[in-house]
Every structure is written in structure tokens, then in C-alpha cells.
Amino acid sequence: MRNKPEFEIDWRMTRRELLRYGAIGATGLILSDGMVLRAFGVPQLPKPGVKGKAKSVIQLWGWGGPSHLDTFDPKPDAGSDYAGPLNHPIPTNATGMIIGELMPELAKQADKFSIIRSMTHGNNGHETAAYMVQTGFKPGDGLTHPGVGALVSLFKGQNAGYKGLIPPYIVLTQLLGRFSEAGFLGFKAAPFATGGDPNAARFAVEGVVAEGITDERQRERRDLLLKLDAMREAMKDSAQIAAIQACEGSAYDLILGDAGKVFDLSTEKDELRTRYGKTTFGQSCLMARRLVEKGVPHVTINFGGWDTHKQNFPAMRRLVPQLDKGLATLLQDLSDRGLLDSTVVWWSGEFGRTPKIMWEQPWDGGRGHWGPVFSSVLAGGGFKGGHVVGSSDDKGEYVKDRPVYPNDLLASIYTLLGIDPSTPVPHPEGLVVPATPDSWDAGKPRTLLTEIM
Description:
Structural class: alpha/beta
Helix content: 25-40%
Largest sheet: 8 strands, mixed
Oligomer: single chain
Number of domains: 2
Distance between the termini: 34 Å
CATH topology of the largest domain: Alkaline Phosphatase, subunit A
Number of strands: 16
Order of helices and strands: HHEHEEHEHHEEHHHHHEHEEEEEEEHEE
Number of helices: 13
CATH class of the largest domain: Alpha Beta
Shape: globular
């Protein structure tokens, strides 16, 4: 059903059309996300109608589907065909909560996070499952819904008067590639993916930090561009050229000014960097903290490698310690800086892994895709720590009690951000589309995670 929209967005300006104006040159980043919107006008959206204490989200995405039994829902009594060699879970500083044996640092921080052990959607396909967890919608309604990052950056960034030079939606370091993060909101709501590696000697952020090019060389390039830009002088009275000039100036302020220094991790103490872990994921967690400290509304860390069809346990021994150090230090660091209360931290993948281990060849102890039940972790931004929501059965195969669907989880995050889960999201054709659906299936109305809110 189509209703007259309460807001209008000018979707006519595209990157290709902007390129026609010519004054872009080395400043490709000015065409990213919020900067173009600020230059050409931010859409006026309905204000969120609920109060929330959270200002930002750090989403830690376990790309591929982490094994719930080997991390946050251990089943040591299920037998070797289910628990495998990682059958010695450890207690935490939260009464009654145990987690996988490879996470000793998180065990010390359990009072800061809560585990949902009854996440479910029943889908075993990477693309479809990722879409459902990231948007809260099932596919098949004829729409491509925007992901959580696009909506948070829209309502907490552009709609909330975000003025930072850094785009309001950052992905460290590569896009997921499983679905369209911006959905029907289009490229204007798409994330800025940094590329590069924050664990490298110099974090080469695409469009901001050019590997092998000094700041002085960048200044020389800018000066040369200005000298060669005849169109700028010929059309100096053009409002469109003036807008592009302002956008270009903002881009160079980010590249050469103070704003871009947020990406320089060399200013952090080596002791802290070591605590995070000298890995791409660990340093991405540190980078995420620096970004929310600057007011960026949404940061996603895409942490791949969890699609463990083969040799699951060697992969777990490599990946889980990285997760342990990075996430545990992030929680403590945010807390020490007074940022945890205003920052939602969310760990999840698109699904879990098959509880029964595939010992046969060629899997050699692998675990397959498993959408009937998996785990997510929530902390900060108003979520209570030290709790477990829901449970799986004795073998971790199905939900035992308190099923939590993707729209339940996202609606809870939105609520703590002050975004009404039913608020309409601007659609280019004027459709009235809520941020999350009010039910997952017939008879399964949306339910907030009130146990931990």
C-alpha cells in the first residue's frame, strides 16, 4: 500500500552527475555518504519519538557464522560429538554465566555484557541470514531494506545534526558483500569502508591516507588542482560549483586537518594496543573506540573467517583468542573513558554452526551452517551486563526457551538509541516502511529485550 510520504528526498544527484562538474580530482572521499548530503542538503526526517541514552553503535560482525557451542553457549555435557575438544568452559565474573574456554579475558568482563542464547531465524544461507540479522526483515516483500548501520547513521547522524567531517557510518575494513547495507536508501546512506589494515605501520584509509604519499605531497597536489581548475574560475558564481568547492574543502580538511588524525593509531600507547591485540581485528576495535569518541554514530567491524566447514577447532583456536582480547579490551576501554553507557556494543554473526561435529572426511571436524539457534552478545548503551537471555536445548540444536528474532534484537537497539522501532524510514517511492516489522511470523509479535534494558 502506498501512502503520501511525510518527507521528501532529492534522489536525482548521482556520483556520475557530480563527476560531470569536474572539480573532484584527488578528493574522491567527498562523494562518500554524509559529505555529499551535507553539501547538497540533508533530508528532513521525522524525529525519533522515544528517549534513549545510547549515541553510537559498534557492531562486531562474525562474518561466516561463529560456532555458538565453541564461544558463548558451551555444552560440555553433550558429548564429544557436540562439544569436541573445547569441552572445558570457564566461569565468569557474572554469577552463573559460563563461556568458552578460549575467552579468559571476556570472562573478566562478563559483568559488562549479556548473552542472548536463543537467537533464531531458521535460515542456513549466508546471504539471506545476514540480510535478516542486519535488517530485521525477511526477504520476499519486494523491498531491499537498509541495514542497521544505515538506519543508525540516518537517525543519529544526519537527522540528529551530526556535523563531523568523518562519515556517520564507517566499516572496518571491508564491506560484507552479502547484502546491500544501504538498501532502498541508496548510496547516500551507504557506509564508508576504510580498506587498509589498522594493524599496519600506517593505516592506509582509502581516500584519506594514501600509502606512500606524504602530507606535503598531498598539499602540493591540492595546489596544482586549484591552478589547473579553469572551470572553477569561469563558473565562480555558480551555486553548484560553490557547493562542490565546499565539499572539496571538507575533504581536504579531513585528509590534511585534525579530523583525519583519528585514523592515526600511532598516538595510542603501545601497552593499550597490545592489550587489544596486534591483529587486524584487535586494532579495528581500538579504531572503533576512537571513532565513537569522535561522535561517529555507527561503526561496523567485519571480522571474517568463521565459516568453519572444515577443521573448525584449529580455526577456533586462532579466531576466538582474537575476539577475546579485542572485545574484552574494548569494553574495558569504553568503560574507563565513560563511553560504555552511551555506546551499544553488539557481537553476532548471521547464524551459528551445526552442533553435531562433522568428523568425517573431507570436513575433518568441521561444523556447517545452523540457523535454528545461535548466540549474540550485547553491552553498553543501556543494556545491562551479567545476564543470559533465553537458552538452547542440551545439545545446542534448537531454542529451549525465549526465542529472540532479528527484529526483536534490532528493535531493542533502536529503542536504546531513541529510535522508535516503528518509525517510518524514507523510501524513494513514498512507501511507508517501518524501521523493523512488528512481527516475525504470525503469532510472533515483536518483543523487546526488556530483561536487559
